[in-house]
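Thread: quick sanity check before group meeting

JM: Hey all, I'm pulling together slides for Thursday and realized we never actually wrote out the predicted structure for the chain we discussed last week. Dropping the sequence here so it's in one place. If anyone has concerns about the input, flag it before I start.
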Amino acid sequence: MQPSPRPAFPIVSTDRGDRRSVARRLRLPAIAAAVALAACNQPAPDTTQSATATTQTTTVAPAAAPTAVLWNNGQSRPLDVQVAHANGTVLQLTSLQSRDTATAVGVRVINGHRRDVDLNRFPNNRNGFLLLETGERLYLSPPAVNPRLTVPIDQTFEGELVFLGRLPPVKAAVLVLNDSMSGDGEHTAAPGFRIDLPLTAAAQPAAPAR
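JM (edit): ok, ran it. Output follows.
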């Protein structure tokens, strides 16, 4: 009697313990493959957001604006200047201040003429200005409600004349009003004034009206 042929594959025992062992051996490669696949599917870190966050935290402080140089360091200085025109108008200068965008001259105008007088007869001709020693002119900016700077007869006007632009620390300047008008006419209703401003520490006497 010939022996039965040997099977091509080893026979797996049908015992319960052996089946569990085989099942565990079959599951291990599958679990390892799943773990590897999950690792491959993990999203890459967002470098764009990191770069953006880094950029946002970097700030550059703005450069400081240069400080304007003003006459008398921008402080108001009282003045005591008086000029009488031949037509009876008296102009007093009471203060001077240089600001960032304008220069203010405190004035008091006494109208002793027999008619109303205008200190800025032609508002569009730029006949009122501060003439600096450098040749620069700071032009008068008259109020909209009274562009001709009219002072009624026997009245007194008190306020500020505003000139466009800051007054730098110069040593000499002239206040000019009604530049094209008469400086000594007795009958004029538009008196012309040219007054030297006392810009130095020691005030100089005012020049007579032109």
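AS: nice. The CA atoms of residues 124 and 147 lie 9 Å apart. The domain at 71-196 is CATH 2.60.40 (Immunoglobulin-like).
JM: adding both to the slides.
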